[in-house]
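Good morning,

Attaching, inline, the C-alpha cells for the sequence recovery test we're adding to the shared suite. The designed sequence is right after.
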C-alpha cells in the first residue's frame, strides 16, 4: 500500500478504504493482545516489533497522499471569482423597469413609464451613487 500511495496509481477512495481497514485491523490486534494468553501475547509482541514500523509508515504515507490528493481536488474545483470593476459602465446604471411598471401603477396610481423613467433617472442622478432610495408616494 505504501508503494501505491507514493506512485499515485491508487484512486483516493480505495486508498482511504485500505488505510481505514489497516488501521482498524492493527487496533483490533492491539486489543486482542491485551486479552490474549501470555504465549499469544508474546507472539503478538514479536509481530508488532517486526511490523509495527511498517504499519505506522504505511498509514502515514496513506494519510500524506490523501491530504495531497485532497489539496489537488480542492484547487481543481475551486471556482475563480474575478474582481468587480471599480465603476459600473453607464449602460449598467440605467433601469428600464419594463416589468415593474404595473406594480408602480398599483402603488402610486397610474404613472406612465416615460414619466417614471425620467423621474428615476433624475432622482438617482442627484443622490449618491451606489445607494438605492425608495421613491416617495
Amino acid at each position: 500500500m505504501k508503494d501505491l500511495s507514493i506512485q499515485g496509481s491508487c484512486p483516493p477512495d480505495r486508498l482511504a478504504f485500505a488505510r481505514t481497514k489497516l488501521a482498524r485491523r492493527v487496533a483490533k490486534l492491539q486489543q486482542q493482545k491485551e486479552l490474549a494468553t501470555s504465549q499469544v501475547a508474546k507472539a503478538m509482541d514479536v509481530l508488532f516489533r517486526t511490523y509495527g514500523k511498517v504499519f505506522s509508515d504505511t498509514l502515514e504515507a496513506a494519510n500524506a497522499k490523501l491530504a495531497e490528493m485532497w489539496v489537488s481536488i480542492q484547487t481543481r474545483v475551486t471556482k475563480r471569482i474575478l474582481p468587480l470593476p471599480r465603476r459600473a459602465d453607464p449602460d449598467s446604471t440605467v433601469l428600464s423597469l419594463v416589468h415593474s411598471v404595473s406594480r408602480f401603477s398599483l402603488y402610486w396610481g397610474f404613472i406612465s413609464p416615460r414619466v417614471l423613467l425620467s423621474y428615476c433617472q433624475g432622482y438617482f442622478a442627484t443622490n449618491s451613487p451606489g445607494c438605492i432610495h425608495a421613491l416617495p408616494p
